[in-house]
Amino acid sequence: MFAPGGSSANMYAMVLSRQHAFPQSKHKGIRDLGELVMFASEDSHYSFVKSAIWLGMGTASVIKVKADDRGRMIVAELRDSILKARKEGKVPYMVGATAGTTVLGAFDPLPEIADVCHEFGLWLHVDGALGGGWLLSTQHRNLLVGVERADSVTWDLHKLTCAPQQCTVILTRHPSILCETNSLRAEYIFQSDKYYDASYDSGDKSIQCGRKSDTLKLWLQLKAYGRSGMEAAVNNVYDMAQYITEKLRERPGFKLVMDEFESNLISFWYIPPKMRSNGHSLAPEVLSKVAPMIKKRMMDCGSLMIGYQPLSTKQLPNFFRLSITCFPESNTRDMDFILDEIETLGKDILL
Ligand SMILES: *Cc1c(COP(=O)(O)O)cnc(C)c1O
């Protein structure tokens, strides 16, 4: 099913998994089900929490599981959280793993998480909004090993693979669950006595009524580039990410947030020359002001658009978060330009 964005797709997963565990909830709602809870890593996307508000389960129903220093869910913590929730009388219904976290681009260990889901009889959703695109590459699809055991998967084609916004699929291995969850058989539009084949009409399985034809964006992209063209573009992203990581490692004034990155999100600090005191590290609150200042200059002169952010779960002050994507295909000159330009824009800063 195409959904209007990864946030909506994650909400789909929460409803589908709930429907799967509690078929009666379609009619009776959740009032008799006890305190439903789902689990996602502390680095997971906020859409799980937002969806929990909309679905009447509340923000407290999303239990955050600790991530390791590279942003991957710690599976032992997941197990402990499930056991603790059960002991407290809560009712687990889903685990939301992330394949490509929004900030660090980390991939949760899907095979181990799938084992835990199997052990406790929980629905495994994989939020591959960011990372799903790596499946197009035979070279890099191992990043998502274990995804084949998921009950549902979110994949944003508008992220890594740059389809026009929004172009998202929610995939599920349960063929009838979309229908069971959403179908109301509205007679003005989903007549059951049509004299033609309506089996491809997905309307009754969707949360939306009128919809944009998001499929067309993917279809056109595949027509234009072909599977091999898409694969080459994805592989190029990986190569460029490796290239710029290497440059960032060597170049004075730049500092990587992690030694290595798993995919296309590269996070780093830039420390202007006048602020590089020999041996002393910069106070976090001072360093935190550099990226916003350079970002302002980027926007003023229109040369780059690179986001920045802090990471509060790891107490990291504002850093640049570069997202390398498929189209237009970038090359090493572009990567060099990014670093040169940040240096040019930031060289006189002294805070
Ligand atoms: C971006 C993102 C989302 C939300 O997707 P939208 O298409 O922006 O709604 C969900 N999960 C992850 C991991 C993301 O990076």
TrEMBL record:
SUPFAM superfamilies attached to this UniProt entry: PLP-dependent transferases
MF annotations from Gene Ontology: carboxy-lyase activity; pyridoxal phosphate binding
Chain positions with N6-(pyridoxal phosphate)lysine modification: K159
Keyword Nucleus included in the entry's annotation: no
GO CC annotation, single: cytoplasm
Cofactor(s) needed for function: pyridoxal 5'-phosphate
Gene Ontology biological-process annotations: carboxylic acid metabolic process
Keyword terms, alphabetized: Decarboxylase, Lyase, Pyridoxal phosphate
Superkingdom as given in the UniProt entry: Eukaryota
UniProt similarity note: Belongs to the group II decarboxylase family.
Record's protein name: Glutamate decarboxylase
Taxonomic source organism: Oppiella nova
